[in-house]
Amino acid sequence: MGTFVQLVVDGLSTGSIYAALALAIVLVNQATGLINFAQGGMAVLSAYIAYSLLGAGLPLILAIGVAVLISFVLGAAIERLLIRRFERSETDTAIVVTIGLLTLLTGVSAWLWSYNNLQFPSLFPLASVDIFGAVVSVRSIGTTLTIVAIMILLQVLFRGTKLGLALRAVADNPASAAFSGLPVGRLLMVGWGFAAALGAIAGSLVAPQLTLTPGMLDNALVYALAAVILGGLNSPVGAVVAAWLIGVLENLAAVYVPFIGHDLKIAVPFVLIFVVLVIRPQGLFGRKVVARV
């Protein structure tokens, strides 16, 4: 029983890493209608900015706060100067641009800070607690609670505020939103800025659990995309629940299913996606899109 609880707890901790990035992907999709493959690179760059500010003598919480603000401006600038040129093109074109942006941001991070592993300090203590026989780090608990808080805030933003409703309107139909008097260009910039700021928070939460390198979130991005598809592109709650589900099922399958083991556990989320999408194409928490003709 102790082993099972430990596997579940470790899976939730790993799933929180995926969830942090998945929430940023959901945010930019809800605000712009795009899937941003560069989100991992933006999060890593933000973590490096926070690391440099720490080296300049700023306290950790202030360094992360300044990095979040810088990331917001950077995200808005990327939308205005780069992404906007492709927003009226085919969706596939814009997605390819974000993949290229990911490569660019990873290269810039490596050029400025090298590929050496750097230790990023944690916002939470390194102590551990015992929960039903499982050893859980306070850092994992703090990260998970932060992810839950962000999830709730995003849900409130998109469901209960005028800004969130305006962002969703622009993402669904920019032309119609413009005819309604919404400032489409500014809202798209705000959406990318929010996503970049959330990525900065995600990078600062994840970096202490991994090590800060340019490719720190490459693997996590794949799992985050899986969580977004599994949970639903328009559901912050779905993205987080799916990320936790992936983390837990991966761990359990690696230990309790002999032919999978640790080598094949990476296939678990993709088998799960296949099964879920056959039953619910919109994802576990997604909404069906109804087209009126």
From TrEMBL:
The keyword Membrane applies. InterPro entries: ABC_transp_permease (IPR001851), BCAA_transport_permease (IPR052157). One of its GO terms (cellular component) is plasma membrane. It comes from the Bacteria. Keywords: Amino-acid transport, Cell membrane, Membrane, Transmembrane, Transmembrane helix, Transport. It is a multi-pass membrane protein. It is found in: Cell membrane. It holds the Pfam family BPD_transp_2. This is Branched-chain amino acid ABC transporter permease.
